[in-house]
Structures are given as C-alpha cells and as structure tokens.
Amino acid sequence: MTETHQTHGPAALDVTGVVDPSSAPSATDQASLSELRDIPQATVTRLATYLRVLGVLADRDTTTVSSEELAAASGVGSAKLRKDLSFLGPNGVRGVGYEVARLHARIAGALGLDRVHNVVLVGVGNLGQALARYPGFARRGFSLVGLFDSDPERIGVSVGDLVVRHVDELEQACLELEATLGVISTPDEAVQEVADRLVRAGLRCILSFSPTLLDVPDNVETRQVDLAVEMQVLSFNGARNIENGPSSSASSSSNSPSSTSPRNGSVIAP
Amino acid sequence: MTETHQTHGPAALDVTGVVDPSSAPSATDQASLSELRDIPQATVTRLATYLRVLGVLADRDTTTVSSEELAAASGVGSAKLRKDLSFLGPNGVRGVGYEVARLHARIAGALGLDRVHNVVLVGVGNLGQALARYPGFARRGFSLVGLFDSDPERIGVSVGDLVVRHVDELEQACLELEATLGVISTPDEAVQEVADRLVRAGLRCILSFSPTLLDVPDNVETRQVDLAVEMQVLSFNGARNIENGPSSSASSSSNSPSSTSPRNGSVIAP
DNA sequence: GTCTGTGAAGGGCTTCACAGCT
DNA sequence: AGCTGTGAAGCCCTTCACAGAC
Fold it and tell me: What is the value of pTM for the model shown?
C-alpha cells in the first residue's frame, strides 16, 4: 500500500516537479523581435513544458541531456522536440546533446521569461485564494502583485503576502504595479466587466477561469481554463479508448506520450 | 467607473454562464459505438463548448438557433461549427437552423454525458477545496462523490457535502462509489502514487493539476492543467501580438474568435 | 430566399529519414 | 559512432464555396 510505481515503462528521468529560481547562466538570450514570428502555436505550448523539465534537471545538477531523454521526460517524441527547438536556432552539440543551463536560458529568453511578469488577480473566492497561494506561480517567472474583489467582507483581508483591495482601484493599481497579466476568477456575471477594466488599464494578457467567452480588442490575448470542458473531453476520450480496444495508438490530449521506440525501458541509463 | 462594455462588437448573444440541469427532451441519443471513432480531437473539445452555450440558450427559452449565432456565441466561425456538428450526422433544418433542446441532447449523447459521471478528488489543499466547492462542476454532468487526502489534520473535515477520507481507502472507495473519473490536486511528489492507485481502482480518466508527467497504462486517458504553462503561453502570445502590430489576425489559443463577418454588430437581432 | 451539410482546396503540424557536425 | 538539425512526405484540421433541403 505504500510502495510507489513499479510497472512503469517509458517515462524516463522521473521528473517530479520542484524548481528553484536560480538557474540562468551567462547566455542572456533576448527575444530578438524576429524570433517571435514563425514559431508555431503548438510549439510555443510545448516549449513551456520543456522549460519546466529543464528546470528540474538543472536542480539535479544534470549538465547535459539528449533529445531522446528530454523528450521522454516531457512526454513527446524526440523528433518533435528537435523540430520544436530548431525554431530557436541551433541549441545543442551534435553527437553530444544539449547543455541544460544553456537551453533553459535560451527557451526562457524566447518565451520572454527573462523578465518577471507582474500579475494581478481579480476575484478572491475559493478558487482565487487557492491561486493566490499557489507556489509554482512565483517559481516560474510570475510575481503576484495585486488581489482585488468587490465583496466588502473580503477587502482588507490578507491572502499570502498581499491584502485584498477593492476592484474599483483596479485600473489605477495596475498602472502603479506595472502589471502585465491579469487573472480572472470571479463569478461568471462579473467576468466581462473585469476584463473591460483590465483592458482599460492597459493589460494585454488575460487568463480566465470562467467558461464565459471574453469580448476584448484584437490586440489583447486571452486564454480560458474551463474545468468542465476538460473533464468532458477527458471522459469522452476515455470512452473512446475502451471502445477502440486498449491496444496501441496512445492517448491524445495536450500531451501525446507516444514514445518513438515503444516500451523500450529506461532511456536515462544507456 | 461603473458602466460595463460598450465598445464590444462581435460576441453576439452575450452568453454569460449559468445552466441548470433540466433541459434534455425526448431524444435519448446514446453514443452509438461507431460515432466515437472518426470525431476529430479538436472537434470534441469544441463540442463541449457548444454544449455549454446551448445550455445557456435553453435556459433563456430560446428554441432555435442558427449556425451563425451559435458560432458567434461560442467564439468560432460558422463554417467550423457546421463541420463539427456534421460529424454527429444531420442535426438541423435547412433554411431554419438548429432546435436548441434537440442539439443539446444530441451533443450530450455523443460526448457520453447522458449519464452522470462520478468523480473522486484526491488532495484537499487550497486548490482541492476550491475545486470541491466549484458549483459548475455538478452543473455540467459530474457528481463529486469522494474526497481524499493523506494529511491527518484534514481527514474527517467536511468540505461541501462530503467528508474527507484517508487516501488509503481510495481503491476500496472508488469501487464502492462507482467512480469513473479522478481529479488529482496533491503536491507534485504524491501525484504519481495517487495516479497508480486510481488506475488500480479501475479508473480510466484522470485529470491532474500538477505539471508532473503522469505515467499510466495506454488505456488510461489523462489530461493536465498546468497554470504556469497557460500563463507562459499567454504572455508569449501577448508579446507577439504587440510585435506584429495590433492589426487583424485575431488571437490564437483555445478560442479563435475570428468571426466570419468581422465587426458586423449584433447577430442575435436579424 | 435562407440556412444546413459537405466535397475540395488550403494551411499547419507531425513524422520520417537522413545529411552533417563532433 | 552518436546525436543534432532539417528538408520532404504525410496527416489532420480549417476554410472555402456551393449543392441541396426547406
């Protein structure tokens, strides 16, 4: 009852989280204006994953990693990983692999994570409080700098290091705090108004946890996390798996763990 | 400071959430074994969105909707919507549109949501508690039936309607509760062990909020929600928007609000 | 005339397989 | 010999445009 996994095959390197913010070495790769274009959307999403895995490897003082290993630890195929990285230009050494610290810095630079992003969070209910206390938040390049709500009972309450302020101060505070990213975890009815305020305050990036469709100007980037959609897609795919018979073809969603060489055991120990 | 949006164009129908679980009419469309195949992954994800919007429309006693309207309210193009629906067979009436209740039932059936799914949640920390109290959870076909944790201080505590049980009871309880979907919101270190237990208990669908890569058998479907990845992708796309100049080309992520007829005002009022 | 359903064209992403560097 | 970087092939998805039903 207490033993952990033992029947597990492909997931090499056993990356289990936990990064500390001390890794970037010398290479100060600034996102050089032209790299931003031409990186496929799907690749951008995976780069963020590689970045996290590289952080874990750096913490373990792993200095070098091959595409095969990094791919396995990230849940993708090695060819896909190399293709993804190729959009950033040459990153590794042929016959050897990638230098962990260098590649980490390279990706962070490309994603614009060499500078810290200030985040404001609006809606300090159950979910908002949980988000405000989420440690991985700060650990991956984001600094929570403001909490806002409209409920008088919540104003002035401390959550983590911050004190909840009234949402009427939002526009003003965003400017003072130099916020660049807004997170909305209010009830559905308030979402659009909050989004409008964030836009008015000059924010260009909004993450919403409401299923409501946000209506914002073209130059504002939004992203939604809808829990119910995730679960519905999940259960459908689960049903399909059983239907199709539990043979090959791997899964499907965000990560496609179709390892290139199926079930060949450890990839870390050659 | 108190007025809401006024410069907003395309998002017609202004769907703002809130569904109640009283809609399905006569058509008991069972997922008929062959429909499961051949539905593109991207389509499945959007079907879940359409389903939610249709729920909202049903609540408003809207009986009929055109592809143009439903598409606008869902943040997609009308052609894409029609193509998506076509995978379920004929659903509408030419020259008229779709009957809301009928289409809702049709999609729900196709996604396997005509039966309720029992969900167990493991890890009742900040995030876990927020999830446990999330109302939209139950409102969209999922019933939370069990809460588990390993921290002695949390065992026996009530969250919502449920009492937190020890994670050692997990396998046994999953069988008794007839759970079909597991949600993991534990610290990263515990995620793999919890996943192993869920698999052992026969669950085929796992939703994880940890960035850790899950290693599970092929017939188990997993899905991850990684907050940091969402924010990193968001901020990158935001930077790219500014770089490219705030012209056309709309956004990019989950929803692509590229309305077919750009900025033509209300679609709901003909 | 209106609006759905769909073949066909087009674009983007993935996979393959190998050239090229160490 | 080993491993990266990359053209090319293939696949999936999106978009177009129109035939067909009402």
Answer: 0.85
